[in-house]
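Usage

Read records sequentially. Each one opens with the input sequence:
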Amino acid sequence: MNTAAKVWQDPAALDVVQAFWRLMGTNDFYAVEAVLARDFVLEWPQSNERIRGATNFARLNTAYPAQGPWVFTINRMVANENEVVSDVDVTDGVLNAKAISFFTIEQGKITRMVEFWPELYEAPFDRTAFVEPIK
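and closes with the structure output:
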């Protein structure tokens, strides 16, 4: 074996997504580009929007009107070799939201995200006899 040869291994998909959320937490959204592929695509099906490219992702997040620094709390992540799903609470101190994100990882970079931002809603009928409140 040639000792000068470097064997490159992909970081685990879970590690990439953990790095993504850690970098998001710095609020330096251009730093997040380190874990995004050159042809990165993010889709928000609920608002029918697609963001192409790491730079557009950084620019959009930088321009987003926030009341304070964004804080991201990971509640749960599930992963296999190249896909990760995360459940993350997001707040700027005023806005509180939940992001459910589906990541695709290739060669150690995030190539695709599909993200859902579910909002709380009232139960459609009185079902208090069958349920209990979560909070």
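Summary fields computed downstream for this record:
- The two ends are 58 Å apart (CA to CA).
- Residues 1-8 have pLDDT under 50 and may be disordered.
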